[in-house]
Design brief:
The protein is α+β, with helices and mostly antiparallel strands and 316 residues long. 28% of the residues lie in helices and 38% in strands.
Length: 316
């Protein structure tokens, strides 16, 4: 009996190791740009950018709830949009979005369009009367199209649609014209808010599932260069938090031995390189990190400024 129990426990432990905590891997770093407003303009406000910005802010919150992404702060995104002179509507195509994403130091960018943001309310009862009870029926609909853009290739990796709908009926006192006197604006706001929350949660969940299923996108390996190397002061790389570097990551350092160039144009066609060392990150700052040598791999070269580094311990 004890042997069988130990056998079962062993199987469970092995399964846990093989399957692993999928969501324990280093999360993607993404940024969400203000969405385009393509919904019907029958609302009480007329600023398209404010709706797109508001929806993107809600989407950021939804992504954070999934606990599967690292998000860039809104202030940083706004600063880049102003620097790149993106118009008030915040409209970008995948190519320009990828460029913004590279500046922000993110792996993927989320762009999209609000296709429906609508609420219709009707009051039944009290018509041609002085006042009395009335029934308010309200239907709120929100629909959002979102695209995930690879900042390295400017490729749209996937697109999803999130929808939300909220129907309510409430009794209240109304005047002779049928307008509710108690709580009508609050009901509308609540319904639209709930519909929006359902839509953005749907988008965030779908993108998280597609981003991590291993079929559409894979986490790109982080690459960089040795910026400083001194036996007494350590080794510094030109990549940091902005590139997603974390303490404990391992990198392979390679030295470019020779470049193969076109004899006529001088264009670099290929490179001959040699592995120099394997290093591990011990300290990370915004745009630089510090590492130490784990394994020396070359008898001919030491780690020197300009050597190429590529991440080795990428989690899947």
């Amino acid at each position: 009996m004890i042997k069988k129990l130990l056998f079962v426990i062993t199987l469970i432990l092995i399964a846990g190791i093989l399957v692993g905590p999928v969501w324990g891997a280093d999360p993607y770093k993404i940024a969400v740009l203000p969405f385009d407003d393509g919904s019907i303009q029958n609302r009480w406000w007329g600023n398209q950018y404010e709706l797109g910005k508001g929806v993107s802010d809600e989407l950021v919150t939804a992504f954070l709830r999934t606990e599967k992404f690292r998000l860039v702060e809104r202030e940083q995104i706004n600063a880049i949009l102003q620097e790149q002179k993106i118009g008030a509507a915040g409209l970008v195509d995948p190519k320009s979005a990828a460029e913004i994403g590279r500046i922000l130091g993110v792996q993927f960018l989320v762009i999209g369009r609000v296709t429906e943001f609508y609420q219709d309310s009707q009051t039944i009862g009290t018509r041609n009367k002085k006042a009395g009870l009335a029934l308010l029926t309200s239907t709120a609909r929100v629909s959002i199209d979102a695209r995930l853009v690879d900042t390295t290739t400017a490729e749209i990796l996937t697109s999803v649609t999130g929808k939300g709908k909220k129907d309510t009926s409430n009794l209240g006192f109304a005047d002779a014209k049928g307008a509710l006197l108690i709580g009508s604006k609050e009901f509308q706001k609540t319904d639209l808010g709930k519909a929006l929350r359902d839509a953005v949660d749907s988008v965030a969940t779908q993108l998280a599932e597609k981003a991590y299923d291993g079929k559409i996108v894979k986490i790109p390996l982080i690459t960089g260069y040795v910026a400083f190397a001194n036996p007494n002061r350590g080794i510094y790389l030109n990549i940091g938090k902005n590139a997603g570097v974390m303490v404990g990551m391992n990198f392979l350092v390679t030295h470019i031995v020779e470049e193969i160039k076109d004899p006529k144009t001088g264009e670099v066609l290929d490179q001959i390189s040699e592995p120099v060392a394997e290093v591990t990150i011990t300290e990370v700052r915004e745009r630089v990190c510090v590492c130490v040598v784990l394994n020396k791999l070359s008898a001919n070269y030491e780690v020197t400024v300009g050597d190429v580094v590529i991440q080795q311990n990428q989690k899947q």
